[in-house]
Amino acid sequence: MSTNPLILIVGNGGREHALAWKLAQDSARPRVVCAPGNAGTALVATNVDIPAIDLDALVAWAVEHRPHLTVIGPEAPLCAGLADRLQEKGLRVFGPNQAAAQIEGSKVFSKDVMVKAGVPTARAGTFSDPEEARAYARSLSGPMVVKADGLAAGKGVLICPAVEQAEAAIEEAMVRGAFGSAGARVLIEEFLEGEEVSILALTDGERIVMLPSAQDHKRIFDGDKGPNTGGMGAYSPAPIATDDLWPVVRARVFEPTLRELRSRGIEYRGVLYAGLMMTKGGPQVLEFNCRFGDPETQVILPRLEGDLLPLLDACADGVLDEGAARWRDGACVCVVMSAGGYPGAFERGDAIAGLEEAGRMPGAVVFHAGTRRDEERVVTDGGRVLGVSATGSDLPSAVARVYEAAAKIHFANAHYRKDIAWRALARTTP
Ligand code: AMP
Ligand code: GLY
């Protein structure tokens, strides 16, 4: 490797800040560039003003600067084929190609892979005709889930307590086109009961390195109330992921999925995210994502001992060593601070105070999501504004630290949940 390898990170969220923050500490001292990044990535990297979905401009930049590696954060450019476009130019990429990214980009594709591979997942039907979809919904009793096939910014999954709501959901997705072309096909599946956990694995298409477990908090308000969001906080490890789960997830989820993809001529290189429901009958896959989770990344990467770049390089080159990663004991917790009104309408441009003070708290790091620099100030520029993470020797100490750090930060109408990690705390506290 040349000295100070140039790394391009595509994206502008908390996940990308966490990736940039970790890579900037690697022993190879990479020069990190983020496209487009945010006010936080600007502290550890150089931002270039190219949107994550402007494939032509990203390819042009990469062809000119020849980065050692491009790390693609969000699903949209992955599903649009950014990895393929860069690889065609002889450039190295961390992140699946377009065919492999269908595991997230099409729920119909993903379910088909799971069924063929024998991966435990909810029973489902796939429909492109609303009449057939309604008939199937009527044939199911009890709660069910209607899912738009394509990418719908997290909004395409409709939990339906009974057939009436399912019929309304089918109407919305397939007839009224609420999710655009993403809803032209839907999946209707049985509702699974249990607690959710995220298990992510780095992979070169064949070998895998599983990352520590994490649990996300998708609802906006304490007690898991209110509408779904991109994620309001996370913690790692999730105590529900007990030691006996790991071999099961490896042998029943990751290995057969990668094998099935290979049998279709698809080599998956990057990180594969399995959203699991821990049911009474064992883990079931709710979804796959073709990328790092956000905010899961903000609690996983602070726990990685040593360098990140060699792991990403090994995935890109197809030479991953399954024993390559070491993880710190203890725990990490991330609290997302959002703009008032999110996930509905919210203001932008409010000044943020206390960032440096919060970052100086023991074990704490403030990851930026929706922020930008406005002259000397850092201002809000998105719904999820910041992800404050803190490590600790155990979960309660990480929780105490993260809330001490978050309390130092102020902006107009800031909102954050006060109960991140409550399930795990309830489990570990007698
Ligand atoms: P997905 O994008 O498929 O993961 O769905 C988003 C969220 O909807 C998941 O994180 C779960 O909370 C919920 N969900 C999806 N599928 C099911 C299911 N079959 N049963 C219960 N909840 C589900
Ligand atoms: N935190 C959930 C996701 O990244 O999709």
Description:
By secondary structure, this protein is α+β, with helices and mostly antiparallel strands. Among the domains are: 6-97, 3-Layer(aba) Sandwich (Rossmann fold); 123-190, Dna Ligase, domain 1, CATH 3.30.1490. 32% of the residues lie in helices and 27% in strands. It has 15 helices and 25 strands. The strands form seven sheets. Strands 12, 15, 20, 21, 24 and 25 form a six-stranded antiparallel beta sheet that branches. α7 crosses α10 and α8 (130-139) runs antiparallel to α9 (163-175). The longest helix is centred in the middle third of the chain and has 19 residues, at 245-263. The termini are far apart. The structure holds adenosine monophosphate and glycine (GLY). Adenosine monophosphate binds next to β7, β8 and β17.
Give the SSE layout.
Layout: E1 6-11, H1 14-24, E2 31-36, H2 41-44, E3 46-47, H3 55-65, E4 69-72, H4 75-79, H5 82-88, E5 93-94, H6 98-105, H7 107-117, E6 124-127, H8 130-139, E7 144-148, E8 157-160, H9 163-175, E9 186-190, E10 195-203, E11 208-210, E12 215-216, E13 219-221, E14 225-228, E15 233-236, H10 245-263, E16 270-279, E17 282-289, H11 297-300, E18 304-305, H12 309-317, E19 326-327, E20 331-339, H13 355-359, E21 364-368, E22 371-374, E23 377-380, E24 384-392, H14 395-406, E25 414-415, H15 422-428
Parallel strand pairs: 1-2, 1-4, 2-3, 4-5
Antiparallel strand pairs: 6-9, 7-8, 7-9, 10-11, 10-16, 12-15, 13-14, 15-20, 16-17, 18-19, 20-24, 20-25, 21-24, 22-23
Helix pairs in contact: 6-7, 7-10, 8-9
The structure holds adenosine monophosphate (AMP) and glycine (GLY).
